[in-house]
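Chains adopt folds. We examine one example:
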Amino acid sequence: MTDDLSDKNKDEDSLLLLLRDAIVQHLPLNDIKLILSCKYVDVNGCVRHGLRPLHYAVFENDLECVRLLVEEYGADVNVLDEAGYSPLHLAAKYGFLDIMHVLIDHGSLVNFHIAVNNSQTRSLVTPYYDVMTEPLSLCLENNHIECARLLLLAGADVNQQYFLGYEINLLSYENYNSLELILKHGANPNALSRSGITPLIKACREGNVGAVTLLCRYGANVNYVTRKFRQRNALVTAIESKRSDIVEQLLAHGGFANKHPELCNSPLEFSIRKDAIEIIQLLIGM
């Protein structure tokens, strides 16, 4: 009996490797069907590192193979590999919009942190939970705007919290379109990162006037003072960088031109200390 079970497991492993190779090499669908018709093949069987045949089909951007596995053989669209990636995560990371449509239409989850807490998915290795990324985050990180839009329309949580902050805190503001998209869909413009920094202060620190203007337009608190480390607000941060264009935007959106009650110096005093001539002229001219 033990030998029979061992032989069965070996056969299953060999067939899964064969199936993987067939998918990766883009063999005809009939060849893949032939392998799947074998007695010991499990379409949801683990090949390596928690990866299933569907993961490989998605990675290869093989839409027809994905359809075959999902629609004809019942591949689990929500199974996670050892790193906490579902097939949808892979499609989101690489911007495979058509495949994302298929996966979502066949029941793929779009909020995996919530799903794991509710026991709606399986095969998550516990150590990866705290650093697990959502498909939306992968779309935004790689500037796949239409893929991100699809996820948001499917119910993705635009205010998902991670270890270092919320979605909006972790996004690169060089991806202006991504920032605008999540703000349109309700991202909190005043969400605090783990270090206590608002998106607006981050944008000022990076010298990104476009992101500053956009965040102000969506209601960012221009006068918020950080509680951790050095006390700063957006205006002080912009003055430190001598960015008169950003200072002008902040003042236009309600930034305190006079001394903030929670700060030691007024913007003018701070500008003089920094020898920021253009900003001094701007403040005096108000």
